[in-house]
Amino acid sequence: MAEVEETLKRIQNQKGVQGIIIVNAEGIPIKTTLDNPTTVQYAGLIHQLVIKARSTVRDMDPQNDLTFLRIRSKKNEIMVAPDKEYFLIVIQNPTD
Amino acid sequence: MTGKGSPKAGARGSASRPKSSSSAGSAKSNKSAKGKPKPSAGKKEEAAPPASECAPPEDIFPLVLTSKTQELFQCRADEDLTQENPYKLLRKEDILLDVKTRGVVSDFQPFKQLVLDYPEEEILLVYDRDFKYGNNFYLVGSEEKKEQFLHPPEASTQEEEEEAQEAPYKPPESKLWISLGSEVEIEDESIKDHRQKICFKISRIRREFGAPVKFSDHSAVKEKENYVECPSYQDKTFNIKQMEKNAGIQAIPMLVEASTQTKWKYPKNACTQYSAQEFSDEEKQKLFTSKSLKDFINSVSIRFEIALQQNEIMNAFIDDWKVLGEEESSFGGKTDTHLKEYQSFTDLHFSKNKAVSFVNWHPSIPGIIAVAVREKYSFEERINFSAKLLLTHALILIWSFSDPIHPQLLLECPDDVYCFEFCPSDPSIIVGGCMNGQIALWDISAHMERLQSTRTGGGKHAPAKATSLPGFEDPHANDTPVMRYCAVSSIESGHKAPVTDVQWLPDYYEVSRLGTPVENSSGMCLQIMTCSPDCTVFIWDVRAPKAPLSQMTDRKKAEEKRLDILHEIPDTFKHLDLTWKPLIKVALPKLDGGGEYSSMKFSLVDSHRDTWIHGNVDKFHPKTEKLESGIDYATLRVPSAKNLKGQSDVSTKFSLGTEDGELVYADWKMEKDNDTGKLSSSKPSNCFVIHDGLLNTVQRSPFFKDIVLTVGGWTFAIWKEDIMSGPLLQSCCSQKRCTVGHWSISRPGVFFIGKEDGSIDIWDLLEKTHEPSQTQNICTAPITCIKPWIMSSRQHLLAVSDEQGTVYILEIPWTIRHPSNNEKTSVSNYFEREVKHLQYFEARKLFREREKSEMEADEQKRKAEAVPPEKTAEQLEMERKTEYEEYLEVEKKILIQVGILQEAEEPLPTV
């Protein structure tokens, strides 16, 4: 558990990181560094997007699978790494 | 003629007139008797028959009336009787009389019987111009006809109208059918049997019934008697080709009817309420500690770190083209980079031969600029001309763009004004510092409408004329109004030297009597800070102080003095006039002890936050709304220091420029001296002597709060307030004295320096730092003030004033007013680099000093060591000789080894 904490802390301390959310396969957040309403919103929306992205990748090539999803927007970048049981969502504000 | 006459008469006769024969006879006799009318009548008769051969109706009797008869009866042709009015009623008696008197000669002779028979009194004579009935007149014989003639059309129309009106609606009545012969045709059409039908009866003998039948073959073809053939044959009569055929086509759309039945669905609003699924804390904790999560995190974190670092290193999504393009667009032609003259203001009457000391734009009304003028005399000249100077008033002129010849308003000052400022929260209050050490307040709110209306370019003189009566015109109506100051500070407690800088303190804090910054509850600028070369900095308050007894006498004096004051002066600051004392006096003792700093200009660290960066009109609107209710400054009181909250986030420091070219950082906060209980200001923290003349500008950059521009003597310098070691940038000495400087309000790295020869240098820190990026000559006299202003996003103006009384308004071209991309960051980077440069320089200095001291130490050490004994000359030679011999032997050995020198063989013994 300490290891997990440590890793998360390492990620959190990178430059520009605004928040980290760990979500389970159903989209329910497990751990977060943001406030609750934001977390819930992110978890719900990004979960759906990741499912869609994953199904897209798999449809095109069933041997393939989604490893990482990065969404770059004007204000920040949202990075999602999916897994069988969990997602990890990191929101970063890239340097101007 | 006679022939003609008789058929006519005969024709007449057919109309069954009783007098036909007699009339024929009388006509003849008439013709023979009167010769004159004969040919004309005859002509007429000739003309008449071809024209109209119609037989006159029964009652019309055409006759010829000779001219004499016509005169007698006043029925002359074309005179009494005309085409339009051809009717004349003749009295029967007159006619009979005429017949009697003239007998056979009378025209009416043939009609005598008619006239006698005529039932009425008057008989109608109609002038027949067209000879409708053969003669030029005709008599109407019957009453009915007469009536008809006289009242023909009216009667008929009248009758018709009556008929139309009176006909009521009658439903159609069934009438008996009258046969018109159509039955015969119908009868013809129907088919009936004409003859009896013939009836045949055919029967067979009874005994032949039931007999056996014998069938035999029979050829149908051979014996042609058994049958009758009607073969078809080509009948030529039927071989007619139809050449033409009439056919009609009608095109109609296909009409299809179809129907379906659907279930009616209507939109319904439905909503559900849900809450996101969440785990409880224990569940979260459980999951968090699970192994699967740990593995997941371990596997995934690497990807994240790569991605995050990628983002940090470089922005992969920047559009290089776009970023490149923006900078290029500022490349304009040479003509675009010069300041173009927009307008210039000079008044021949008021500002001739005077120097402009200060210029200021009106903060809220665009296009209004206030200019302070002062005399150009030196101190001695002033003393000599003091009598003359007393008569002429010192003035501040307020100009409007709409009228470059006449100033809009003149403000009278007690003495020449060196500097003045509009109050930021109430732009109709102006405070000015005068040459004699007083500060004056003006309230121009009475003229605000005038200024605003002139700004909009309305008719300045026309309305005045329209409303005034001739003869009662006010000869001074069109003159520029003069406003006197409404309050001046007390002479004894003010400055002792000209006030060189005056500024309003910002509205978010105020200074209490104890000299500490406290919260400003009113949100208005109420305090003023002034400085003067008499080594003092004062803070004044516009509100009336609490009334201690001593001030009562002052006020009485003030009231007495004001008795003869004109009514036009507003009472806004009546409470201050002549009794105004500064709230706080800040002394500036010199750092190194001797004396005090004679301040010329200052710049507060915490001055108007962001309110004047763009000189934007909008930013003042919220404040002016507050002022709509009208502030009565007289009722405001300086609050007691105890009640106010201290404001700690306000910096009380300020930078000060002195007469000796020094830049001083001082603090106006008063501290209570614990020993004596007196309030005293702290000593200034830093002092730098950089400039070779008095500092005429100390100005904070509108973009960076800690960057200050100072201009004085032949140089200017840029400072950062935290850096105590020196200026970030100091210019080299220019050829001419720098008289004034000002930051650009739209570009962080640009500022303007005015020179003694009337030229302006435009410096762009991002372009070159060793010389101005542009120089432009504006006028021939030294420049006294530069003030930029933003009128609109397309028009940035620069007001430049000189020592000859002229104010030039120049337009700043796009290249100088438009900041490039990221200019602020570039400039701040530049400053940081300079700071580092300075720090490095400092560090190097220290290093060098250390080095130097080390070197000195070494040298001393060396000197301190014992000096080794000197060898004598002989000994030295001996040593050298032995060395040389050793060397020769070694040389020999080497040469023998090499083989160059052969060893000398011993000579053989002789035999």
TrEMBL record, chain A:
<dbReference type="GO" id="GO:0005868">
    <property type="term" value="C:cytoplasmic dynein complex"/>
</dbReference>
<keyword id="KW-0963">Cytoplasm</keyword>
<keyword id="KW-0243">Dynein</keyword>
<feature type="domain" description="Roadblock/LAMTOR2">
    <location>
        <begin position="4"/>
        <end position="92"/>
    </location>
</feature>
<dbReference type="GO" id="GO:0005874">
    <property type="term" value="C:microtubule"/>
</dbReference>
<protein>
    <recommendedName>
        <fullName>Dynein light chain roadblock</fullName>
    </recommendedName>
</protein>
<comment type="similarity">
    <text>Belongs to the GAMAD family.</text>
</comment>
<comment type="function">
    <text>Acts as one of several non-catalytic accessory components of the cytoplasmic dynein 1 complex that are thought to be involved in linking dynein to cargos and to adapter proteins that regulate dynein function. Cytoplasmic dynein 1 acts as a motor for the intracellular retrograde motility of vesicles and organelles along microtubules.</text>
</comment>
<dbReference type="Pfam" id="PF03259">
    <property type="entry name" value="Robl_LC7"/>
</dbReference>
<dbReference type="GO" id="GO:0007018">
    <property type="term" value="P:microtubule-based movement"/>
</dbReference>
<keyword id="KW-0813">Transport</keyword>
<keyword id="KW-0493">Microtubule</keyword>
<dbReference type="InterPro" id="IPR004942">
    <property type="entry name" value="Roadblock/LAMTOR2_dom"/>
</dbReference>
<dbReference type="GO" id="GO:0005737">
    <property type="term" value="C:cytoplasm"/>
</dbReference>
<keyword id="KW-0505">Motor protein</keyword>
<keyword id="KW-0206">Cytoskeleton</keyword>
<dbReference type="GO" id="GO:0045505">
    <property type="term" value="F:dynein intermediate chain binding"/>
</dbReference>
<dbReference type="InterPro" id="IPR016561">
    <property type="entry name" value="DYNLRB1/2"/>
</dbReference>
TrEMBL record, chain B:
<keyword id="KW-0963">Cytoplasm</keyword>
<dbReference type="InterPro" id="IPR050687">
    <property type="entry name" value="Dynein_IC"/>
</dbReference>
<keyword id="KW-0853">WD repeat</keyword>
<dbReference type="GO" id="GO:0045503">
    <property type="term" value="F:dynein light chain binding"/>
</dbReference>
<dbReference type="InterPro" id="IPR036322">
    <property type="entry name" value="WD40_repeat_dom_sf"/>
</dbReference>
<protein>
    <submittedName>
        <fullName>Dynein axonemal intermediate chain 3</fullName>
    </submittedName>
</protein>
<feature type="region of interest" description="Disordered">
    <location>
        <begin position="852"/>
        <end position="877"/>
    </location>
</feature>
<feature type="compositionally biased region" description="Basic and acidic residues">
    <location>
        <begin position="852"/>
        <end position="865"/>
    </location>
</feature>
<feature type="region of interest" description="Disordered">
    <location>
        <begin position="148"/>
        <end position="172"/>
    </location>
</feature>
<dbReference type="GO" id="GO:0036156">
    <property type="term" value="C:inner dynein arm"/>
</dbReference>
<dbReference type="GO" id="GO:0045504">
    <property type="term" value="F:dynein heavy chain binding"/>
</dbReference>
<feature type="region of interest" description="Disordered">
    <location>
        <begin position="454"/>
        <end position="473"/>
    </location>
</feature>
<feature type="compositionally biased region" description="Low complexity">
    <location>
        <begin position="9"/>
        <end position="30"/>
    </location>
</feature>
<feature type="compositionally biased region" description="Low complexity">
    <location>
        <begin position="48"/>
        <end position="58"/>
    </location>
</feature>
<feature type="region of interest" description="Disordered">
    <location>
        <begin position="1"/>
        <end position="59"/>
    </location>
</feature>
<dbReference type="InterPro" id="IPR015943">
    <property type="entry name" value="WD40/YVTN_repeat-like_dom_sf"/>
</dbReference>
<dbReference type="InterPro" id="IPR001680">
    <property type="entry name" value="WD40_rpt"/>
</dbReference>
<keyword id="KW-0677">Repeat</keyword>
<dbReference type="GO" id="GO:0036159">
    <property type="term" value="P:inner dynein arm assembly"/>
</dbReference>
<dbReference type="Pfam" id="PF00400">
    <property type="entry name" value="WD40"/>
</dbReference>
<dbReference type="GO" id="GO:0060294">
    <property type="term" value="P:cilium movement involved in cell motility"/>
</dbReference>
